Amino acid sequence: MLKTQSVQVIKQKHDLDADWLNYLAQMLMYDEVIVPDGKLWKRFGPLHVYAPPREYILALKIAAGRDKDLADCAILLSKTRIRTREQAQQVVERYLLPGGLQKNAESIEHALRWLFEGKRG
User: Would 82 disulfide with which of 1, 65, 87, 108, CB 3.0-4.6 Å?
Assistant: First the structure.
């Protein structure tokens, strides 16, 4: 069975939201990020779903830099110990490989300005 079919079967069987697993995004960024170990979140029979650290999610959302991700970043920041632009930059550099940093440099800069300098225009 294809992975995308597996995702759909699990979604239907357990009545999950359609976007419960953002598999495509993971595959698109596979060679751009360092994927940390996560904590066990839920078990669905033999399927174990792990949640990554908040800092990892924050780094990916900063790299994406979309408006909806920036709003999420503001919430995530309050759930971490990250208080400065420099700390956020370090988290991004911890999880994004050089190619990912380069490819997403403009989005990263935009997100960091938006979050820490109030440049929301």
Answer: 87
- Does residue 79 register a pLDDT over 90? yes
Contacts of 60 (CB under 8 A, 6+ apart): 29, 33, 95
Residue 78's pLDDT is 92
What is the secondary structure of 25-89 as a DSSP string? HHHHTTTTB-----EEEEEETTEEEEEPPHHHHHHHHHHH--HHHHHHHHHHHHTSS--SHHHHH
Q: With CA atoms as reference, report the closest residue to 32 among 103, 109, 90.
A: 103
What CA–CA distances, in Å, run from 37 to 16, 53, 72, 120? 23, 8, 21, 33
| pTM for this model (two decimals) | 0.72
